[in-house]
Specification:
Signal peptide: 1-46
Strand content: 25-35%
Number of helices: 21
Keywords: Membrane, Signal, Transmembrane, Transmembrane helix
Protein name: DUF6049 family protein
Region (Disordered): 490-514, 722-790
Structural class: alpha/beta
Biased composition (Acidic residues): 728-740
Shape: elongated
């Protein structure tokens, strides 16, 4: 002790350790020898070996009554290195379990050798094995009349299936492996039966994209072909329909699943490829989809159908991260509105849309507020979230009025989570079924009050989980302590006055679930995509071709199925937004190079291209001059014209311009929606303004030259005519210079008068005067409509 105190945290010397161990062995040797002589010594040592594993593959009937014969079948496997001899499998009935917690405890330690499971029943009901070789599995089957089990009053009993035998190192009969389960025993009809509602969910992951074909059929495009595998015989969804059609359940359906299967059944669907291309879907898968829908229509006929909002939106993610993003709640309302229409169109039944179902039934005040914001007034919660605080000795009924006209329908957590493990092996499935039935019977024996209990299993059970659920339900509905009830009836049932109605705080929401939620950035991207869609749809002549597929894709972006798949969720949202951008870019302005404006006024064409299959309109094209003092558009800084373009065509819109000065001017063309929002990218180009171009100067110069030549010719002709006149006058004018100034009355004076005045009636026009060969030049601006050099 001094050593331990003085040197805490250090080890003793090797010599001292050897002395202590030797002393302990010498002290315990007599006690060990005495224990080896006791009859119970064998099992005590076997408790640490667990040599043999026992699998309980079937137990029939699951809930026996008077006169039944119980048949237990399974497999034993020798996991040790030594052969087991003189082995046999026998049944052991333990004491009655009186609480639901005791059932939980037995289930947690179902294969441990420690503890007692009662004595083995008559050796007439056992199966013997001479030898179990190491690593070898052998099957067994034991049938025993129920009256040989010595069961007492009605209730739940522990049932052990044990293998006993010997090994070469332990040569006495001992229990080498055991598997415990439960035997619900209700010998006759119970005086009060529990009303049980079992939800049967038809929900899948997101499969459809926002893309559709350009034709009238709008061929849908799928992310992959995984949905066909689920619908095919033996697939998960095929099993859900085949099993559910014979059960008294409430069908809880995501309308997106129906829309996706219906799209497959219609044919011509395509599968998205990794390289951006797509391939046609299989005709065989189209047939599978048709058959599945036909089977579902028959299965739900006359049954209650609850429609979740379209694509099963994640209510918790929306409450915790989406409500701070404008417009997020409107998507939930839209998903709720379209849900009933989709189910009624595909299944020809009118569903209930009064229920909201948060993930795992976990609620807090914000989730309750969001869940009821779209019109649902009943929220499916779970008892491990809405826990009892009043100390009731029994499980209360499901409905709880929580204020504001809202009812929380609280599913039982133990029953709802009974089938969440891997049940692909028969042994695991059998244990799950027996545990479910045991909890159900134990719940019924708690009180004489009749209660309404709801079971809300996982959203997407595997095929093996669905099979186990169906087996448990068949036993329950054929049993003596439960009766089936629809979800709506359960929600309307009389609430238990002692049950809690207090919604847990936001801090109580499970962290494991919060880590899987969609982040705020996801809702911001959804809002951005919606804004783009709003702007795009305004210009379309047939908005439904775009609004419907993109509206449903936005609903899918909020799906609960993205939990745990954040990378896939990001990729889906990005794909939707990118496709919308690509479509919107099909309506755009064509780029223009520099434009030369000849003259002081001209027209400038701007081309709008529409590569969509449908016409577009409700657009305005604005052309703006950045220097209106130099160049005006339609007499001002900018001018607008409405635009309508047919599908697959382009249209040029012409703008009248006027130049006030030479030089270069940048002009900006921009499309707007009729409500004044910019649409697409602007197109900028330069206009080179030249008031008088070289070509015009050449034309004017040529005209002036012709006029000069014509005037010179007229002058020379008149001068020659005057000379001839002088000669005709004779000697009267001889020796005189007719051009001499100051010679009054001379010919020069007359000639001057003649040339200074226009020809009149007294001076007839000379035959040699040429007619003008150019039009008179006008100083007025040139008319509009001149060709613009581009």
């Amino acid at each position: 002790m001094a050593e331990a105190a003085d040197f805490q945290g250090t080890s003793a010397s090797p010599a001292r350790r050897w002395l202590r161990r030797a002393g302990a062995l010498l002290t315990g040797a007599p006690l060990l020898a005495g224990l080896l002589q006791l009859p119970a010594a064998g099992p005590a040592q076997a408790a640490s070996s667990d040599t043999v594993s026992v699998s309980l593959d079937s137990l029939s009937p699951s809930a026996p009554t008077d006169g039944d014969t119980l048949t237990v079948s399974g497999t034993v496997t020798n996991n040790g290195k030594q052969a087991v001899t003189d082995a046999h499998v026998g049944l052991r009935v333990g004491s009655q379990l009186t609480t639901r917690s005791e059932i939980d405890s037995v289930a947690r330690h179902s294969d441990e050798l420690q503890g007692s499971t009662g004595s083995e029943i008559d050796d007439k009901y056992e199966e013997k094995f001479d030898t179990l070789a190491p690593g070898v599995a052998q099957q067994f089957s034991i049938s025993v009349p129920v009256d040989k089990l010595d069961l007492g009053e009605d209730g739940v009993y522990e049932l052990g299936v044990a293998l006993s035998g010997e090994t070469s190192s332990q040569g006495w009969d001992q229990v080498l492996g055991i598997q415990r389960t439960f035997l619900p025993w209700q010998s006759s009809e119970a005086d009060t039966k529990t009303k049980t509602t079992f939800l049967w969910p038809l929900i899948s992951t997101v499969h459809m994209t926002a893309k559709t074909g350009a034709g009238d059929l709008q061929t849908p495009e799928f992310l992959d072909d995984d949905l066909a595998k689920e619908l095919a015989p033996g697939g998960r969804l095929a099993q859900m329909v085949d099993l559910g059609k014979d059960l008294d359940v409430t069908w809880v359906i995501d309308p997106d699943l129906l829309a996706s299967v219906d799209a497959m059944a219609a044919g011509n669907y395509r599968i998205q490829g990794a390289d951006g291309t797509s391939t046609p879907g299989s005709r065989e898968h189209q047939t599978v989809a048709k058959q599945w829908l036909a089977g579902l229509q028959k299965a739900v006929a006359g049954k209650e159908v609850v429609a979740l909002p379209f694509a099963d939106p994640d209510l918790a993610s929306l409450a915790h991260s989406g409500t701070s993003v404008t417009g997020s709640l409107s998507h939930l309302k839209d998903a709720t509105d379209v849900a009933a229409t989709t189910v009624k169109t595909v299944l020809h039944v009118t569903p209930s849309t009064d229920f909201a179902w948060p993930v795992d039934g976990a609620v807090d005040p914000s989730i309750m507020k969001v869940a009821t914001s779209a019109g649902a007034d009943r929220v499916i919660a779970r008892s491990d979230s809405l826990q009892e605080t009043a100390g009731l000795s029994y499980t209360p009924s499901a409905p709880r009025p929580v204020g504001g006209g809202t009812t929380a329908v609280v599913a039982d957590a133990r029953l709802s989570t009974a089938f969440e493990d891997d049940l692909s092996k028969a042994g695991s499935a059998t244990l799950a079924v027996q545990r479910f039935l045991a909890q159900s019977l134990e719940l019924n024996t708690q009180t004489d009050k009749q209660r309404s209990i709801v079971v809300a299993p996982q959203r997407m059970p595997t095929a093996s989980q669905a099979q186990a659920m169906a087996a448990a339900l068949k036993a329950l509905q054929g049993g003596t302590w439960s009766q089936a009830q629809d979800l709506t009836a359960a929600a309307k049932d009389k609430p238990d006055p002692g049950a809690t109605t207090r919604i847990p705080s936001r801090s109580a929401y499970p962290k494991s679930l919060r880590r899987q939620e969609l982040p705020r950035t996801a809702f911001e991207q959804i809002a951005r995509t919606q804004d783009k869609l709003d702007k795009f749809q305004v210009i379309l002549s047939d908005q439904s071709r775009v609004v419907t597929p993109f509206g449903r894709a936005i609903n899918r972006e909020m799906s609960t199925s993205w939990r745990g798949r954040s990378e896939a969720a990001d990729g889906y949202r990005g794909g939707v937004e990118a496709w919308l951008d690509e479509l919107a870019d099909q309506v755009k302005l064509i780029d223009k190079s520099e434009t030369k404006l000849s003259g002081r006024s001209a027209t400038i064409p701007v081309t709008v291209q529409n590569n969509l299959v449908q016409p577009v309109g409700h657009l305005v094209l604005r052309l703006t001059s950045t220097m209106p003092t130099r160049l005006k558009i339609g007499g001002k800084a900018y001018y607008e014209q409405p635009v309508e373009v047919s599908g697959g065509h382009s249209q040029s819109v012409k703008f009248t311009t006027s130049a006030n000065a030479n030089g270069r001017v940048t002009v900006i063309a921009q499309l707007y929606t009729e409500d004044g929002l910019e649409y697409g990218d602007p197109v900028s180009f330069d206009v080179k303004v030249t008031e008088v171009t070289p070509t015009v100067m050449l034309v004017i110069g040529g005209g002036v030259l012709l006029l000069v030549l014509a005037g010179f010719r007229m002058y020379t002709q008149r001068k020659r005519a005057a000379a001839r006149q002088a000669e005709d006058d004779g000697p009267d004018t001889a020796g005189e210079d007719p051009d001499e100034p100051g010679n009054p009355g001379g010919p020069g004076d007359r000639l001057t008068k003649e040339t200074d005045s226009a020809p009149g009636a007294d001076d007839p026009e000379q035959p040699s005067d040429p007619a003008p060969d150019t039009a008179p030049e006008s100083a007025d601006p040139s008319g509009t409509g001149e060709r613009v050099d581009r």
